[in-house]
Amino acid sequence: MSEYDIVRKGKLVLKGESEKSKKRKHKKDKKEKGEKDNKEKIAVDEDAIEHGGWWRCTKLAEITGNIAIEFQDRQYIKSVDDGTFILGVKHDKGDPPAFDEEFTAFIVNDSKIYIKSGYGKYLKVDTNNVIVGRSEAAGTQECFEPVWDEGKMALQAANGCFLSIDPEDDQLVAIHKKITSSGDGVCIIRSNAYRGEIISKSAPIEEKVEDLDQIEKDYVKRFQKFQDKKMRICTEDKDQLVKARDTGKLHEGLLDRRSKMKSDRYCK
User: Against a cut of 0.70, is the pTM above it?
Assistant: First the structure.
């Protein structure tokens, strides 16, 4: 063996330099990793997507504000101008309830709610066990109690019976003292209240928040250069932005307002 073979082989290490360089961990890397983990934990509610963004209520506290009552898949209770209620036609996937299928719920106490129709009348059960919406004020007869059992829900009226659909005329009635084996009485109450989570992975970020002020702030943060560490937001009235959102052109409306700010690096 020659003298060259016994010489130590490896990377040249200078005096004062460690053999292994330590990899620096930056706070930015940790923050980005944390944000990525949080995004992965956000659950997409596919059931709500199929129902136009209306999600299933699973507890009493959620049954407040705008609601829809679903008795069959994508079929909701519909208000009739005579004060009665029938089962509406089946909606396509992704379609929300129609305007005459929307109700307003009010929590009365720890177990009961009031329900008001689109005609501004409170629902109650009449002497024929038919659900009608003709009351100007709410009392004990207008109370309904949501009941959950093994993941299924039913609405109990003041007569002690559960709401169901009359098979003869599709009218909303309260005639069953208990849930039948065929599923009569089982329903789903849906709400379109904002819950804070992302509903659809493909939806633009500006469509995931309801507050227009917050939408514009988030939008500006993504594109604006903060040379003096100050955020610049268009001070003009937001009426046009409201119209843009209602017509499905929110992105274009935000772009128009953003283009008026000189510090924006992507707009004139």
Answer: no
